[in-house]
Known about the structure:
The chain is of the alpha/beta class.
Amino acid sequence: xxxxxxxxxGSCGNCYYLGNGEDGILVDAGVSxxxxxxxxxxxxxxxxxxxAILVTHDHLDHIRSLGAFCKxxxxxxxxxxxxxxxxxxxxxxxxxxDGCRAVLAEEGxxxxxxxxxxxxxxPHDATQTVGYxxxxxxGTLVLMTDVGCxxxxxxxxxxxxxxxxMESNFDVEMLMGGPYxxxxxxxxxxxxxxxxxxxxxxxxxxxxxxxxxxxxxCHLSQHNNxxxxxxxxxxxxxxxxxxxxxxxxxxxxxxxxxxLPRQVPSPLFRLD
Length: 272
Ligand SMILES: [Zn+2]
Ligand SMILES: [Zn+2]
């Protein structure tokens, strides 16, 4: 069994669960342990259902509650050596991270809780930002959030995945016509900020393959996007893929597309 759940996704906080209901991992800790616990209990699980935390980067919406997790639910916190150096200095984590420090191998896979994980770097304006390819007995999940622009390595990892969680942050028209100051607009869209709906759809076009089962769009902007716009851009790619595919729907069913809610927990998705 393999479940995936988002506790919150976006600039207000990010935290995701991947596991079988009894063991698994969290990715990022931008949501308080109390809220995670409540959401897990609502799905009939408890907070002991994870044995490690993965961190994608050192922006507050991803690590705000990492210190609280280390204090109240100490588990190994896995990330790169570069990010661990940043967490050891960061005012939100430096007093708590020491006993939980677990460094990912520079190359190849590392055992993280019950799964094998390898990381790849993505462009974004943090100390370092990484995406993850997580191998489980039931299938492989790739998670990439806060991606300034897509890289060949990220696409190659997603091509091997059964499940992909990918940022679809802003709609270009809404961002450009919206209230943000010019500098901030540029910061978001110029390659080291976030991924637009169109860029996410273009990426999907490159990595979609017959074994792809689920695509979750994450980290939507509150002011510069709507779930409908994000969904439409990527759904159009899936339409084209399905109509052009030489295989039958029974052999390779159409990948399921879901948009993760910003501030509330998603349903618990059963992936396998
Ligand atoms: Zn973020
Ligand atoms: Zn970020």
